[in-house]
Amino acid sequence: xxxxxxxxxxxxxxxxxxxxxxxxxxxxxxxxxxxxxxxxxxxxxxxxxxxxxxxxxxxxxxxxxxxxxxxxxxxxxxxxxxxxxxxxxxxxxxxxxxxxxxxxxxxxxxxxxxxxxxxxxxxxxxxxxxxxxxxxxxxxxxxxxxxxxxxxxxxxxxxxxxxxxxxxxxxxxxxxxxxxxxxxxxxxxxxxxxxxxxxxxxxxxxxxxxxxxxxxxxxxxxxxxxxxxxxxxxxxxxxxxxxxxxxxxxxxxxxxxxxxxxxxxxxxxxxxxxxxxxxxxxxxxxxxxxxxxxxxxxxxxxxxxxxxxxxxxxxxxxxxxxxxxxxxxxxxxxxxxxxxxxxxxxxxxxx
Amino acid sequence: xxxxxxxxxxxxxxxxxxxxxxxxxxxxxxxxxxxxxxxxxxxxxxxxxxxxxxxxxxxxxxxxxxxxxxxxxxxxxxxxxxxxxxxxxxxxxxxxxxxxxxxxxxxxxxxxxxxxxxxxxxxxxxxxxxxxxxxxxxxxxxxxxxxxxxxxxxxxxxxxxxxxxxxxxxxxxxxxxxxxxxxxxxxxxxxxxxxxxxxxxxxxxxxxxxxxxxxxxxxxxxxxxxxxxxxxxxxxxxxxxxxxxxxxxxxxxxxxxxxxxxxxxxxxxxxxxxxxxxxxxxxxxxxxxxxxxxxxxxxxxxxxxxxxxxxxxxxxxxxxxxxxxxxxxxxxxxxxxxxxxxxxxxxxxxxxxxxxxxxxxxxxxxxxxxxxxxxxxxxxxxxxxxxxxxxxxxxxxxxxxxxxxxxxxxxxxxxxxxxxxxxxxxxxxxxxxxxxxxxxxxxxxxxxxxxxxxxxxxxxxxxxxxxxxxxxxxxxxxxxxxxxxxxxxxxxxxxxxxxxxxxxxxxxxxxxxxxxxxxxxxxxxxxxxxxxxxxxxxxxxxxxxxxxxxxxxxxxxxxxxxxxxxxxxxxxxxxxxxxxxxxxxxxxxxxxxxxxxxxxx
Lengths: 351, 601
Hints:
A: alpha/beta, Rossmann fold, 10-stranded mixed sheet, two-stranded antiparallel ribbon, 20% strand, globular, B: Fumarate Reductase Iron-sulfur Protein, Chain B, domain 2, FAD/NAD(P)-binding domain, 5-stranded parallel sheet, 23 strands
């Protein structure tokens, strides 16, 4: 961490986005994470993505649980709404927030401890129900806040900083989310901003629960030899299988691409995601193919990244539940609280 | 691109914009930090090492450092570098014991210096400690040259001038006042081992227009008139005064006029304001005293009635200007301005009527001698030029640097060594890290605005000619102004092999001046920078390929505010904040070896 705050300096020629905001307008308070933490990189990527998409900070809600990762919503978009909830319970709060106001752009930030251990059930149900949010798992394979014990995502055979070998199988959040029927499942790496920013943009624009597992090296407890979540290991085993490019509704597709290796997915608002496959053997719209690809490459120790599964046509939990599409704050008081007469009528129907 | 060679002192020197902009390479950030610590004497001596006259220059320097100041590129006004120099001079303790020792035993070499101005005095300052016998010939009854005769005392008090000149003359210089040199040949025949010409550019430019002769009694040449005022030969001027020309001399002339009884002073400029030669701050100071600056008026004639000047006629000019260049001009009408006196301040020139043209010293068609820019030697070996005498009118700080370089040449000439085989500039880098979040400099960016120098009240300042207008900074102003310095000499030093490419430095950088990207040609890399490269002449650092991805770390030095956050956020100390201490060799280094060499024994 740093003692002096990042100074705000008015720069000549600083770019503004479509709603007239500077990139720095999407920043938050100063990070208190360790210097070199992958999470700070992800924070910067989130800042970049929201700025580029010109989303007004007041339309954003940031949600998190407990852990190093869950501190980070304080470090981006100061002007957004936020809820730092109980350990592992971020998805429940997110579901509630979106029930109350479906117009919010929800971003949940969680970690491998928060989502794969204490909050594993919550994670599973958010995916299964397709809560309309961006669900980022900042995955470093250790419990950083409690000094580096293996987490549920630590690979079997990887070594802790003190040399202990992990003998338990790991949970792969990507494979889990695909298996649970997630509508958007991706993996990124904090050290590859060029890939990560478009992934986050696509995840924000996706209608449904967009899970992005981001490998985020813990520079203090998991960046040594023998770790499979270090900067060096991730880079030497890096397999960017499907890169995504977000294309706004009115924007033309400039890049020339070969049909066999690219796919265009149209999103609900008319924007598109251009997927570029490094390996044309599997389409990221076929769940079984994605699982097979993951299995084959993960067993070789590769870190498969990119958009691994996408389906734009899955219904949202709040559509299924039939809750109101009008934000509760916009409903007149009489409709929100129709009085004892209405309550009696409702109860009568249930007798 | 190949890795930027940061071991070459010129790379980090260029990052210290003020020091790069200063002809004498004054270590500005270092003395500002010393002032911040209240170490005024040390700050004064750091200045004196490079610019010899801190008290004088702290008031009247042309300050090339300030337009160069990095602060100016962050959307603010530059640090008041010049006025902080004055702070060091004003608050210093006794410094005489810190002056170099002058050897009793001389080295047997005699040097003649012509003109007791800033250039000659600097040569004497550098050579006296080496055992040279320096003789200074001065036409006037007091030393100081232009600093005394052309700069009015309300800007530069006499005591300040006397004190700093005395530091040098008291070294045992043989100062011959009232001693104009009338023949170079005769001087050369006296057997000096070297001669230095520092006689300035003493000839004010003339304006030949109708009525010049008839009205001559009330038409004055600016620099001669200022000299007459300085020596009390002129004590009054008419009520209505026109100043022709809009350079810094014109500003001194108009303000001096106000102190000699003028009530209505107009500065007449031929071109629009953007083309003025005077420094902005000198224009501001004159306008504060209600001098009117009239633009687009080209002098046409002096109007004389009954043998007495009554005014001047001017053509009102119209210009067609594109991108700061005049494409076309025409005179729209003629107007008359009444005047009791006119002062001509349209420039000055070299004049060497006393140098014979057949003794081997070559001149060009404008009377400017042919002088080598590095060695300051003329075409006659052993004869050197410096200051305005060398390349025409410049300023004090350039004259000082000419003096330093000429002193090196004179020393090498007297020792029979090659003049061009000079010691190189050297650099030391030392980390400023004190602890995890501690640096031995104030790294927090201070957004404070430039402090405004307080002036004596208008009503009070015209009573006496020598009432100094600027009051100096208050303690509070000093405390704020020193914090505005960005410490550009505390360099961001990158160790390529330590970088793990975590992006922490990129994310924390408040100006986005860092980028990690694939290597390529300069133009390609420039395109991929996170913030556009606004000043291509500012240096850009490119590292070797990084270990994990073979990408390179790129830093555009232009907007770096030296806050040290990159180094603070770096988990592997690949970035470090290190002070670059540059050493510009002086004559003493050539004589005794550099300080490092001396220490090494």
